[in-house]
Amino acid sequence: MSFSAREMALDSVPPGSVLAAELRDAQGAVLLPKGASVTEATLLSLRRRGIEALVVLVEQADDPEREAASRQEIEQQLRHLFRLAGDEAPARQLLQMIREYRGRRPA
């Protein structure tokens, strides 16, 4: 499964949801940091503050075509970035580590 950020009306956000972006009030103060888990108490507090929506992470079914296209795009970017790196062991190791890292990130 992969995740995407989606803005949801506060009344539609289930407890246990994870914020995809920090939540700020009208003055710019951070109310909740990115990655915070939303509890029922948090939802009640946000309603009292007049917050109407949150940006939360939502699970998405994996799409094999989309994943393949994403992997191909990552590979093209890496080939371009490493085009002058040569074939020395440190360059190959770094390239492999970056491939592995980027392969784990949500598309």
Instruction: Kindly report the name of the CATH homologous superfamily of the largest domain.
Output: Molybdopterin biosynthesis moea protein, domain 2
What top-tier CATH class of the largest domain fits best?
A: Alpha Beta
Task: Tell me the β content.
Answer: 15-25%
Q: Would you tell me which CATH topology of the largest domain applies?
A: Molybdopterin biosynthesis moea protein, domain 2
Kindly state the number of beta strands. Answer: 4
Tertiary shape: elongated
Helical amount: 40-55%
Span between termini:
11 Å
Give the helix/strand class: alpha+beta
Return the domain count: 2
Note the main sheet: 2 strands, antiparallel
Compute the average pLDDT: 88
Order the strands across the largest sheet as they lie in space. Answer: 1-4
Number of helices: 3
Q: Would you list the SSEs in sequence order as H and E?
A: EEEHEHH
Question: Can you offer a commentary on this structure?
Answer:
This protein has 107 residues and is α+β, with helices and mostly antiparallel strands. It has two domains: 2-60, Molybdopterin biosynthesis moea protein, domain 2 (Alpha-Beta Complex); 64-104. It is built from three helices and four strands; from the N terminus they run βββαβαα. The chain has helices at residues 40-49, 64-81, 89-104; strands at 2-9, 23-24, 30-32, 53-60. The strands form two sheets. A two-stranded antiparallel sheet has the order 1-4. Strands 2-3 form a two-stranded antiparallel ribbon. Strand 2 (23-24) and strand 3 (30-32) form a beta hairpin. Helix 2 runs antiparallel to helix 3. The longest helix has 18 residues, at 64-81. The termini are close together. The mean pLDDT is 88.
